[in-house]
Design brief:
By secondary structure, the chain is of the alpha+beta class. It is 54% helix and 14% strand. The strands form three sheets. A five-stranded antiparallel sheet has the order 2-1-5-4-3, sandwiched between helices. A five-stranded mixed sheet has the order 7-9-10-12-11, sandwiched between helices. Strand 3 and strand 4 form a beta hairpin.
Length: 474
């Protein structure tokens, strides 16, 4: 590109220089010739008064002696006598005498001007003024040389400037090209510093935005694969518990081994789909980017579900498994509507992740409780257990971090779902002695205002807790 731009500048500037240089050079030569011939005509005119007063050669010679030899005119008298040096051809001289009209022309060695003068008895004398060739071209060569040098400097300067501009464009486009190749090769961290002309700067900014978007989409896709694979752990856990309850029957060990192998394969898929691309904000995780803007209520235009109904269904599923392991299971929900802007499957995945962690990280016989209540800000889903609790709540919410040897995605799925409704997740200590997970979810856009006794279920909480304690002790 640099060579092309330099060649274009060379051709264009050369054409412009030639188009101006040739007429200007001709004009300079014409001006020099005009100046020399005009001076010759004036010299001839200065002799006319003297010739009108006297035609003697001696007096004419004395009158012409004051001029320089190169500028001294020549006088042709009517009787054929000559004062000075002539350069005019005889034919030109005769024509001027016959026509009695001034004449001029080019002669060997220069240019000559003839001026006829009428003297005594209608006789004609001719004043000749000669201009040497050197006078006709005095300074022309120097002027042409200066103009040619200026034109050459102009052409060289334009080529250099075009090359510098081309180098700037080439560097910017080269960086953009290399970054594009690196991104295509899998380097998702590559970015460019926008530089060069405005168009290339805009292209660089667009490339950075595209790279950020590609990185975000790839990370989101990998997280989505991991989260979807994580949902398989719930039916696998149910199969594991069911297989353990079968007892010593033919084929039971193989079934348990196959289920364990399948669970390990699911864990491998989840870890392989882990996202090492970049550290992203919660808004970049699946579901968070679809949250409603601040100007409107959360969940506008998306599916909704009732938290109490979904939680009751999922606790019913887990209660059968809990009964097989001797776990006490309690559930309490408000009678008020609990609509949230989530699909039922997404909310079921939240309940399964929280309850599944209890089955996975607490010993058999450990009880748990699930409750749903509605507040003025939204719906709160609470899952608590009687285990050892969570030693480090901050790290437990980090994606992929787990102190129990699991995939570390369960709580991240919960947090991502809460973020999608502009809610939050809190990890506390349960009154049962173990962990207490409070998931706040924003209400759906079509949710009706809470009844006047919104906080009634809070007044019933002590009685509910006593009932939960009695059931867990049993």
């Amino acid at each position: 590109m640099r060579a092309t731009l330099a060649m274009v500048a060379l051709v264009v500037t050369s054409m412009v220089a030639v188009s101006f240089l040739v007429p200007l050079a001709l004009l300079v030569r014409t001006q020099v010739e005009t100046r020399a011939t005009t001076a010759a005509e004036r010299r001839a005119e200065t002799v006319l008064p003297t010739l009108a007063l006297a035609t003697q050669p001696e007096k004419l010679a004395q009158a012409l002696a004051g001029a320089a030899p190169a500028e001294r005119p020549c006088v042709h008298l009517p009787d054929g006598r000559l004062v000075g040096t002539t350069h005019a051809p005889a034919q030109m001289l005769l024509r001027v005498v016959r026509e009695r009209h001034s004449g001029a022309g080019t002669v060997p060695g220069g240019w000559v001007f003839l001026q006829p003068v009428l003297v005594d008895q209608e006789q004609v004398a001719v004043v000749e003024s000669f201009v040497p060739q050197a006078e006709l071209t005095r300074g022309v060569a120097r002027a042409w040389t200066v103009m040619v040098l200026l034109a050459v400097c102009l052409v060289i300067s334009s080529v250099v400037v075009a090359d510098r501009l081309g180098a700037r464009v080439v560097r910017a486009s080269g960086r953009l090209s290399r970054a594009s190749a690196a991104l295509g090769a899998g380097d998702l961290a590559v970015r460019v510093e926008p530089a060069g002309p405005p168009e290339l700067r805009e292209a660089g900014q667009a490339f950075n935005l595209m790279a950020d978007r590609v990185t975000q989409l790839l990370a989101t896709e990998r997280e989505l694969v991991a989260d979807l694979s994580h949902r398989l752990r719930t039916p696998l856990m149910a199969l594991t518990i069911a297989a353990e309850q079968i007892g010593r029957v033919p084929g039971a060990p193989r079934m348990v081994a196959a289920i364990g192998h399948l669970e390990s394969e699911v864990d491998a898929i989840i870890r392989a789909a882990g996202t090492p691309l970049s550290t992203r904000s919660p808004a970049a995780r699946p579901g968070a980017g679809d949250a409603a803007p601040a100007a409107g209520p959360p969940g506008a235009g998306v599916p909704t579900c009732q938290v109490a109904e979904v939680a009751r269904q999922r606790v019913g599923f887990w209660s059968m498994l809990a009964e097989q392991q001797g776990r006490a299971c309690a559930f309490a929900a408000t009678d008020e509507p609990t609509p949230v802007p989530l699909a039922p499957d997404d909310l079921a995945a939240v309940v399964d992740a929280l309850v599944g962690n209890i089955f996975r990280h607490t010993p058999q016989g450990t009880g748990f409780a699930v409750s749903v209540r509605r507040t003025a800000q939204g719906v709160v889903l609470v899952v608590e257990d009687g285990g050892r609790g969570i030693a480090d709540p901050a790290s437990a919410l980090a994606r992929g971090a787990s102190s129990g040897g699991s995939t570390g995605l369960g709580l991240d799925v919960v947090r991502s779902t809460a973020d999608a409704t502009r809610g939050q997740v809190r990890l506390l200590r349960s009154f049962m002695g173990g962990a207490r997970v409070e998931v706040s979810l924003g209400l759906a856009a079509t949710a009706a205002p809470a009844p006047g006794r919104t906080w009634g279920h809070r007044r019933r909480r002590p009685a509910q807790r006593r009932r939960l304690r009695l059931r867990l002790r049993q």
